[in-house]
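User: My collaborator and I are trying to settle a disagreement about how two of our proteins should look. Neither of us wants to argue from intuition anymore, so we agreed to look at predicted structures for both before our next call. Could you fold the first one, then the second, and keep them clearly separated?

Assistant: That sounds like a sensible way to settle it. I'll keep them separate. The first protein:
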Amino acid sequence: MLTRMVYGVTLFYFMFALWHATTNLTDFLKGPLRFLTMWNMLLQTAFIAICLLNSFIGSNEINPKSKPPIRKLRDTIMAGIAFPMALFVSLMFWGIYAIDRELIFPRALESQHSSWLNHAVHTSPMVFVIVQMYASYHAYPSRKTGVTMTAVFLGTYIGWLHVVRARTGVWVYPFLEMLGFPQRLLFFTFSMGLGILLNLLGEQLNNGIWRSAVKKRKQKA
């Protein structure tokens, strides 16, 4: 009951944040869908909805005899994109913000995004997936599957960045304007590597947290 309540409240909070942040979803080239933050928020909101649905019609057991499809979907999304992307967005945003906020979140935008909304979209997803990791065991898919999902998601967004740049003549993020082609290539390569590294970190964290519980469950079985 408590788990469902937490999922429900978190889902409402994320949907409320999305409602405030997505003022113009129809303009793909100039609206909020230019930003990875919004891609991540839509992803995390859908993931929370899946977690909530799984708590009703699926299973949170460590090793259920018959794993429901919704549980498999939850675990796969957590491993492949939800966990790595939540950490990626938070680490990249706050890392660049700490160096020079004008490169990622200019002061001029403060009138459009309040402090709570900034943390709602850049901090709370990371907090949620870490809590979710500790609260429930996730049976990770094969490493190849998980890494491929992360790479495809990030690769698709990097491609979208270039589409927006080609159509509007402006990079979505101000700091990209300051980089030459070699530096941008290095940055995108680093971003892909970081995403994959966070995927592997999630796998190791999940195994470390639940190793003893999984072992006990297998011994009882």
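The second protein, kept apart from the first:
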Amino acid sequence: VQVRGWYPAAILTVREYLGEKFEMFVGSRAQEAPLDIPLLVSEHEKLVDELTLVRDLVEPCFPPRYRIFDVFAEEYHRQTVELVQRILDAHAGTLSTKDIIDIVNWIRDYHSQLDSLAAEVSPTLTDDLDRLLQGYNFQTETMMRNWSSRILEEDLKMQPESGPDGRLYTIAPIDLFKMIGQQFEVVDVLGLQRSTYTLAMTVSNVLDDYKASVEGVLRDGWATLDLSHIAAQTNNCTRMMDGCTQLLEDLEGKLEPERLENIELQLLIDGFASVSRHGATAVCNVVFQDIGPLFPKLFTQKWLDGDRERVMDSVVATIRDYADEVREYLHETYYRKVLIEVLERVVVSYGAQMLRQTSAHNVDASGGIRADAAALEALFAGCGLPQRMLSVRIKPMLLLAGLSGVPLTVDAPAKEGKAGTPDLEKFAAEVCVWLEGAVAAFPELCTDAVHRVLKQRSDVDSRARNAVLVRCNEVHAELLAKVKDRAPKGGWAFFTEVYKELGAQPSNYTPTGDGVFTSLATMVTKGGQMRIKGTGHRRQPSGEVAGAAA
């Protein structure tokens, strides 16, 4: 026997023995299906516990230069590193949350034990946790997206319930944040800030998807829901905002400010506030399913003949019924949003119906418009809408009434039996004064609206109307030159919405034909006929002018 070869042979034998033992008790467990992580960890801990016996009892039996303890520690560590790599390669994407926590804790405890034994080994397994956590993060995000989707699907099948405040809610926000809380409990156990940050990003994405899904239901699927469910999904926005706010506060104590800035929870809070506006729109859509068919009855001959009360009474009664019902369901903030949106849409539809009419009549519609405006104002005031929110939204109806009712005065005839002269100069001046006030309130107003209203008046013929519109276009250009910002005050582009409902492009009306190059001052009447000074062209005054003159 060559004594000089004893040491290498002994060390090689020990390493082979340790490798076979590790494979028998631990490594073979990684080949089993399903993978039993708790059993694998338990068997590994038994082997590592032997290191204490090796240090205390075995190593003293060998020459110091054999470093038997280091041989055991290094070989077990090499085998452990290979085992962890095999687990990550084969199972990283399919491990359960509990298994991942068990593996992380196992690796931590293992390195803590090596440190307590003063064993120097490499590489450090905790540095390789990123691969494990990537699989965990992917699995968590997939699971949470599936859960959030199923939560909303099931939520829409359940009847809403009254909350502590008496309003209607569903269980979805509670279930969603319960699920999120469970996932943060997991990363809290891991104790890694990068894991907390990654989960927070995942949660932010999942909540954003959930927000988009709810928004889609309220925006596109409202017709399939009853009013109580629309109200409940709208009220849920409050709970979602509260949940996001609480989550943001919790993360402030867990993440560095630089990382916290990347978590867009504040945008989500604002986003759910926007979803609530879609809820208000959905309620408004339901209301308009009933009242929408009434608007074509406005400004018809029947309405002009005095049947206007019946149309507006029906609109008012229907809105009041819905308001009484919705007030029980909705949070006060959202109820007020519904009132505002319903009122705005009523006024827009009213204005669109007025501008849609093309036939001329000799009835002053301004009184009827003001009466309808007063009925709407009384209704919404009674429903709880503050006057400061109410008056600005009723104002367009009063403006249109003012334009419709601008008087065309007729001077007394110079000779008995002759027709009087309509004061077109005064009429044009009053229309331009109206235009100045209207543009100040609604800078997007175009003179096409003036044309549409004047066209309905039988006392203003096309020649006079064109001449007035030429003057209006001049005044309008001067007004816009002084107005740098054409954005509507208060954010409500009333006339833009009106023209959208009309399906027309808002623009200034360009007069053509008679009256375009005519000065208003040269328009006179002679012998009951309207003509232009210096020409032989004559036009019979419109019926109301002739009647007034007579």
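Some points you might bring to the call about the second protein. Confidence is low (pLDDT under 50) at residues 524-550. The chain has four domains: 3-123, 133-275, 298-403, 406-550.
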